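Researcher: Let's do a round of design. I'm pasting the structure tokens now; please hold your answer until I've finished.
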């Protein structure tokens, strides 16, 4: 079985990497949901006074993982990822202004050389 945390096939772009990672973890949540749903069904038909209580706990956990998986659906995340892309594309770069620093740091304002005239 392939490792669910294997990141070797991911894209190089950060947004795509994030989307792929979220999708992989969403699949794992859906697997956990399926396991808990099966556990709930088994416990509902089990004998014993506490079986129903455990079935309800498994059902609550299954509903929680399903809700999380739905929130991580790529359809819901696309607007957020698109906004991140736009913000990165149109981020203003701070302008480097002149500063009065030391001569050693390369950012100091220097006096203009006196002009030399040839006559």
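Researcher: That's everything. Go ahead.
Model: Designed sequence:
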């Amino acid at each position: 079985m392939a490792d669910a945390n294997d990141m070797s096939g991911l894209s190089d772009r950060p947004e795509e990497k994030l989307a792929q990672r979220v999708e992989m973890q969403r699949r794992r949540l859906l697997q956990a949901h399926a396991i808990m749903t099966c556990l709930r069904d088994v416990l509902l038909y089990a004998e014993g006074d506490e079986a129903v209580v455990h079935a309800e706990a498994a059902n609550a956990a299954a509903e929680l993982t399903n809700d999380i998986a739905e929130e991580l659906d790529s359809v819901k995340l696309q607007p957020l990822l698109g906004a991140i892309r736009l913000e990165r594309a149109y981020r203003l770069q701070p302008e480097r202004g002149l500063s009065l620093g030391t001569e050693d740091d390369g950012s100091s304002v220097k006096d203009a050389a006196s002009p030399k005239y040839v006559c």
